[in-house]
């Protein structure tokens, strides 16, 4: 198990505009290491290198030689190449989970430390912090704890729903000065695991998270949670049915008992 980092605190960023890629990178690193301007600079650098390679290769593609960026959209959505470059600064590798190199992670994801998930224009990370797994989706008001037994099923459900998943490997930063983070970041927050659990139990809707992200992210469904909710609903229905049955049985018993008492009383009176 990795040593306790950041004094046992969890670093989480709540969704701001379409900056989920920034939030994803920072929660992987567990600190506000990058801003949207940092990622934009990396995107610009990647665009320049791609155009140079196309020109050197003799490919005069108007698409690639245009001023339009291929690594960041006008509304701020970044490509996986930008996230890879950002994490390479910290000597971290981003590997597609379906690649042969990542096969051990496919078998036992608990042995890893971080995963990046992407669908359409939304990014989020699943990260092990101080030996425990958390979903650091910026659509949530706080990181959500995942048991190691649930982790594999959760990743499988994401894959089956079309999410692209990447494994992050390397030596993760251990410390970030909390006071510096508070001064440099307006959408980041440091939480104890207890605080995160309390906020999660209060419900993310009370924190106004749903309305802060793009349309496709708002409409996306979490298949693992949907399955869990459906399972819980079925349990609830079963519990209610059982409770009603018990109540009916109690009523029948009481009714039968009352009838017997009345019958005995009538016989005595007679």
Write the layout of secondary structure elements.
Elements: E1 10-13, H1 20-29, H2 36-56, H3 62-65, H4 80-88, E2 92-96, H5 103-107, E3 114-119, E4 122-129, E5 132-135, E6 144-146, H6 148-160, E7 164-170, H7 178-184, E8 188-191, H8 193-202, H9 215-219, H10 223-269
Antiparallel strand pairs: 1-8, 2-7, 3-4, 3-7, 4-5, 5-6
Helix pairs in contact: 2-4
Radius of gyration: 26 Å
Silhouette = globular
**Which regions are unreliable across 5 or more consecutive residues at pLDDT < 50?**
205-221, 227-255
- Which structural class is indicated by helix and strand composition? alpha+beta
Query: Largest sheet, if any?
Result: 6 strands, antiparallel
Overall average residue pLDDT = 77
Q: How far apart are the termini?
A: 82 Å
**Strand arrangement in the largest pleated sheet:** 2-7-3-4-5-6
Tell me the number of helical segments per DSSP (H or I, 4 or more residues long): 10
| Extended strand count | 8
Fraction of helical residues: 40-55%
Order of helices and strands: EHHHHEHEEEEHEHEHHH
- DSSP strand content: 15-25%
Kindly summarize this structure in a few lines:
The chain has helices at residues 20-29, 36-56, 62-65, 80-88, 103-107, 148-160, 178-184, 193-202, 215-219, 223-269; strands at 10-13, 92-96, 114-119, 122-129, 132-135, 144-146, 164-170, 188-191. With 270 residues, the protein is an alpha+beta fold. A hairpin with an 8-residue loop joins strand 5 and strand 6.
